[in-house]
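A.,

Following up on our hallway conversation. Structure tokens first:
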């Protein structure tokens, strides 16, 4: 087994594929962990699951501009590549792929994936172009790395469903593996955007997990939303119970899995979370 401590960073698809060719020639399986950087323990848990699933682990670091609307936080999204690479080296990842925007979207780029189905409600309604950008970049990442398995956190549960739908619909030869949400001791789901929160907001933030957990136990989502506003949340985009696969209406007792999903604002920071039923 290779000892953690150093990991190579590549910037181009050509260099990436040169590494992949060597691994394939040696009969090694490959896992991909796509990230936008600003890594935390949730990302490292993905790497750990990837190491258990494959011989080699590629972690991509790319803040994807096509999934941000003009009024969103692309310019201020947290970035710390040096710190991220150090964490990945310690975690045992084998390769970091950190391409520039020009490598992923070269001049003249004009092809995008349009997703419907699970992509339409909730996040799709509030961020209409978001999942198009996500699907396009994930398809490009999978195409470049050609992994046996790609791992995504369940914190972005609708994103996970959309990616599974895309892989199924396009018959992409990769297994999509979800990894459970990693939380702070008080229940707050780990997120790179948590660093936007001030001390008062950080104190209130775990109420989101508490609220959706109560909805999973039967509380009315409208009551849960009112409780969050009373606790200090600024606005609730949604708290809804959905079919965990299709994202259509959830029918209790029908034998299909359900999911409580929420998006809520604390000041200028938008938090999302979900729990299973």
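Then the amino acids I'd put at each of the 277 positions:
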């Amino acid at each position: 087994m290779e000892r953690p401590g150093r990991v190579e960073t590549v910037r181009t698809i050509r260099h990436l594929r040169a590494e992949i060719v060597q691994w394939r020639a040696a009969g090694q399986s490959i896992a991909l962990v796509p990230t936008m950087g600003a890594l935390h323990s949730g990302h490292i848990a993905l790497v750990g699951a990837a190491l258990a699933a494959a011989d080699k682990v590629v972690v991509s670091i790319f803040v994807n501009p096509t999934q941000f609307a003009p009024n969103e936080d692309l310019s201020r999204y947290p970035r710390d590549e040096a710190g991220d690479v150090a964490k990945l080296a310690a975690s045992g990842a084998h390769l970091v792929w950190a391409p520039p925007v020009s490598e992923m979207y070269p001049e003249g780029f004009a092809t995008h994936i349009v997703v419907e189905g699970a992509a339409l409600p909730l996040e799709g309604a509030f961020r209409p172009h978001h999942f198009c950008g996500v699907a396009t970049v994930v398809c490009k990442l999978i195409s470049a790395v050609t992994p046996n398995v790609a791992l995504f956190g369940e914190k972005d549960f609708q994103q996970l469903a959309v990616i599974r739908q895309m892989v199924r619909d396009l018959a992409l030869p990769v297994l999509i593996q979800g990894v459970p949400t990693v939380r702070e001791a008080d229940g707050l789901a780990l997120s790179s955007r948590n660093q936007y929160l001030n001390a008062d907001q950080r104190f209130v933030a775990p109420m989101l997990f508490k609220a959706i957990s109560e909805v999973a136990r039967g509380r009315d989502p409208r009551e849960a939303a009112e409780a969050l506003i009373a606790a200090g949340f600024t606005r609730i985009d949604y708290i809804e119970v959905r079919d965990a696969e299709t994202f259509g209406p959830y029918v209790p007792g029908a034998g299909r899995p359900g999911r409580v999903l929420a998006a809520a604002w604390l000041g200028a920071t938008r938090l999302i979370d979900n729990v299973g039923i």
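Strands lie at 8-10, 30-35, 56-61, 95-97, 149-153, 175-179, 235-243, 258-266, 269-276. Curious whether your intuition agrees with the design.

B.
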